[in-house]
Amino acid sequence: MQELIQLLANGVIVGSIIALGAIGITLVFGILDIGSFAHGDYMTFGAYGAFGAIAASGLPFPAALVVAALATALLGIFIDVAVLRWFQNKGPDSMIIVTLGVALILRHVIYFVAGSAPRAYPIDVTTVLDLGLIRISIVQLTVVVAAVVVIVITAWFLANTSLGKSMRAVADNRDLAAVAGVNIRRVRWSTWFVSSALAGVGGTLLALSQASFNPELGWTILLMLFTASILGGLRSAYGTLAGALIVGIAMETSTWSGFFGGLDGVYKPIIAFLILIGMLMIRPQGLFGKARLV
Amino acid sequence: MSEFLNPDFWAFVLVIAGIYSIFSLGLQLQFGFGGLLNFGQVGFSLVAAYTMAILVARYGVDLWLASVIAIGFSMVAGAVVAIPTLRLRAFYLGIVSLAMSEILRYLALNLQGLTGGPLGSPGINGPGHVAQYTNQWFLMLDSIRERLEPVLGAMATRDVATLLVVWIVAFALIGLLEILVRSPWGRALKAIREDEDAAAAMGKDVFMFKLQVFIVGAAIGGLAGIFLALQLSAFVANDFKPILTFYGFVIVILAGTARMAAVPIGGLVFAFIFAGTRFFTFAPFDVLSSAERSYVRLILIGVILILLMRFRPQGLFGRKEELML
């Protein structure tokens, strides 16, 4: 039983990292109608941004997290202005292929600059807090706290600021929003700013939660981001959060010994894949989505 | 510079061009004619490569029979991907096919008893004895080489024989596909691509057409996988990364969508950038290490793709009226 509770706690940790990436995918898809295959690599960019900040100027980790968020936010806007904007009025297939191209370029630029050697943040990852039922490391606690704070800020931003409301209006009906005087370009840039900043934070936390990371960091998690996003209906930030927690918990608890003796940990991505396929067969609009949008 | 003058090096580049062309013909059929976005083509290659290698190396099955069975397995994998996703937007098919190819690679890496796991194909019969699936293939190449010797002399190598086999298959395949896309089946496919609802109203079973085209494309991916395995002589799961599918899309877009016969030219251009630039080992290119040059090469391929899509979306040989992108 204690093992199960521990695995549930791990699932929440993994789920909150997935949420940070997946909410960005959902925002970009919902508001800009772009299915981005580069989002995982934006996460990698953030992780290396934080690593570079710490290595270059010895910033404390929280400050490096902010650097990662800002750097990735600017990257997101830059790539939109420099590349994606060209393809906005072409077919959806163009945009998907182009984001795959952006992913390839970005990943290999990171390889070129940072090399393929595994990296790790100079942070003590061994301290473990014993909370009775569960044991949680300082790193895991940092990840959960940071993820929750960032998600709450994002939710507050979307719900209460005028910019957030404009973004949601565009997601609901772009033409109507434009007619009503919403500044579409401002919405576009802020969408990329928010979703890329989330990716930067998510990537850094993902890197922190692993013993080490390399330039494949974000690409390997992309499937889980999409799964969470699709579970949530691809247009709802809260749905995506729920989807991410479901994916995280399902992957972690699959190793529980009470579950047919527990699967080997290497099969976790396959759990995410099976959830994705199952969801698309039974309810492609996601747990909370509307069928007309699929 | 020495490689620049080595005929075997250029034979190797042409073999790569041929194998990638075959690989991309499947994508051309699916995307250019069917409008289907398959980001997991490399997964079907992986299935076929492993099936063939396991049947030959572990069970001693004849290479030809093993290859036919292997392509059958690719087709089954294609159906598994297509059935849940074909009714949805292109985006979903892209995600699921990409995910499936990664899952297959993952399984191949970890199911050591079946695939040799991290040892790759040499470990198919367990650690300790090196598994081989190439004996029959090499015998065939050698017999071709002997027949070429009177004509080519010292130039008649196994690489040149491979080159012949790969390109004969590639052109035969193009011929078959050209017949296929001009048939009533191919015309229905184009009609569906242009306007699904109109085609459905004409009584065409849209789902069945898409399923068929996806499965045929997966079979072609499987064929390419078998050639890739034979060319490599021994392979590991990581030889089948999603980047290969991406190369396929670069070739299709270079050639122009819905242009079957132009695919080999896309393949040649790609192979020159991808493999042919390996002789750039002299100054000023030697300031970069070999790993760095490979990163630059991939960045370049990505940039070319995006520039093509921006400025020449019909590809080098495409027709504007059949523009997909």
Describe this structure in words.
The complex is a heterodimer of chains A (294) and B (325). Chain A is mainly α and 294 residues long. Chain A contains eleven helices and two strands; from the N terminus they run ααααββααααααα. Chain A has a two-stranded antiparallel ribbon with strand order 1-2. In chain A, a hairpin with a 4-residue loop joins β1 and β2. The longest helix of chain A is centred in the N-terminal third of the chain and has 31 residues. Chain A starts with a helix and ends in a 12-residue tail after the last helix. Chain B has 325 residues and is mainly alpha-helical. Helix content of chain B is 70%, strand content 0%. Chain B is built from 13 helices and no strands. The longest helix of chain B has 27 residues. Chain B is globular and about 60 Å long. The mean pLDDT of chain B is 88. Chains A and B meet through α4, α9 and α11 of A and α4, α11 and α13 of B.
Helix content of chain B: over 70%
Regarding quaternary structure, what we see is heterodimer
Kindly, what is the distance between the CA atoms of the first and last residues of chain B, rounded to a whole number of angstroms?
40 Å
Distance between the termini of chain A: 40 Å
**Beta-strand content estimate of chain A:** under 5%
**Gyration radius over CA of chain A:** 19 Å
Supply Rg of chain B.
Answer: 20 Å
Let me know the largest β-sheet of chain B: none
Question: Helix fraction of chain A?
Answer: 55-70%
Shape of chain B: globular
Compile the SSE list and pairings.
The complex is a heterodimer of chains A (294) and B (325).
Chain A: H1 2-32, H2 39-57, H3 61-82, H4 92-114, E1 128-130, E2 135-137, H5 138-160, H6 162-172, H7 174-179, H8 184-209, H9 222-231, H10 237-253, H11 268-282
Antiparallel strand pairs in A: 1-2
Chain B: H1 7-33, H2 41-59, H3 63-85, H4 90-110, H5 112-115, H6 135-152, H7 158-182, H8 184-194, H9 196-201, H10 206-232, H11 243-255, H12 263-274, H13 290-311
